[in-house]
C-alpha cells in the first residue's frame, strides 16, 4: 500500500484505510439479538481488493457482455463479409437479409453486379466504393446494397457520440426555446456537436444569396 499512500498524498486526498466496523442486529422470530459484527477484513489492501476492485471488474464485465452480445457480433461480421468480400457467403447474406427484412436474391444480384464494377474501376476500399456509387449516382439502382452500406457506416463504435448528443440537447433546448421546431433543433444540434469542423461562411452566404429570387426575397446580399 506504499504506492497508494504516495499517490493519495500527491493528489491531495485522504489515504486509504479500513472502514469502521459496524454492529449488526440479527433478528430471530421477531426478537432482536445484538452483539453481532460484520466479517472483519484485516488489511486495507484486502478491503479495496474485495469491495472496490472486484466490484469494478464485475461491472465492467457485465457492461461488456451486454454491449458485445454474440448475435450483434455475428451480424456485424456478416455485414463486413457482405460489403468487403468479393464473394460473400450465402450465410452472411441470409443473416443480413433476415435482420433488415431484405430479399436475399435481390441483394445477391446487386452484390455481384457492383463487385464487377468495383473490380473494373479498382475500388478496393470502402471509401472508393462510396465515392464511385455517389459519382455515378447509382444509389437508386442498388437500393438494398446502399441501405446496408448506410447502416454499416452509421453504427457507432461507442456511446460517446450519443451521450454528447443528449448533452447538446440540454444546452440547446432551454426554457426560452421550447417552441423551437424539430428541424431547427436538429440543425442546431449538428452545428453544436460538429463544431470542430471548419465552416466556410462565405460559401454559405453566397448560396443563400443565390436563392433570393427563388424564395422571392427582394434584398440581395452584396
TrEMBL record:
A molecular-function term among this protein's GO annotations: protein dimerization activity
Pfam families: Dimer_Tnp_hAT (PF05699)
Domain HAT C-terminal dimerisation: 139-196
Family annotation (InterPro entries): HATC_C_dom, IFN-induced_PKR_regulator
Domain of life: Eukaryota
Full protein name: HAT C-terminal dimerisation domain-containing protein
Amino acid at each position: 500500500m506504499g504506492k497508494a499512500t504516495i499517490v493519495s498524498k500527491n493528489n491531495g486526498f485522504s489515504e486509504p484505510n479500513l472502514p469502521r466496523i459496524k454492529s449488526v442486529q440479527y433478528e430471530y422470530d421477531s426478537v432482536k439479538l445484538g452483539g453481532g459484527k460484520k466479517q472483519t477484513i484485516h488489511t486495507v489492501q484486502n478491503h479495496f481488493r474485495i469491495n472496490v476492485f472486484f466490484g469494478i471488474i464485475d461491472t465492467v464485465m457485465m457492461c461488456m457482455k451486454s454491449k458485445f452480445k454474440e448475435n450483434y457480433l455475428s451480424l456485424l461480421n456478416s455485414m463486413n463479409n457482405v460489403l468487403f468480400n468479393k464473394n460473400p457467403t450465402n450465410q452472411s447474406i441470409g443473416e443480413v437479409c433476415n435482420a433488415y427484412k431484405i430479399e436475399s436474391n435481390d441483394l445477391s444480384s446487386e452484390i455481384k453486379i457492383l463487385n464487377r464494377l468495383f473490380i473494373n474501376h479498382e475500388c478496393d476500399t470502402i471509401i472508393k466504393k462510396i465515392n464511385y456509387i455517389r459519382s455515378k449516382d447509382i444509389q437508386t439502382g442498388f437500393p438494398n446494397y446502399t441501405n446496408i452500406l448506410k447502416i454499416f457506416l452509421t453504427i457507432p463504435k461507442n456511446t460517446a457520440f450519443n451521450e454528447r448528443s443528449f448533452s447538446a440537447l440540454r444546452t440547446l433546448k432551454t426554457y426560452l426555446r421550447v417552441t423551437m421546431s424539430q428541424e431547427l433543433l436538429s440543425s442546431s444540434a449538428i452545428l453544436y456537436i460538429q463544431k470542430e469542423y471548419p465552416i466556410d461562411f462565405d460559401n454559405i452566404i453566397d448560396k443563400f444569396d443565390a436563392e433570393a429570387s427563388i424564395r422571392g426575397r427582394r434584398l440581395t446580399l452584396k
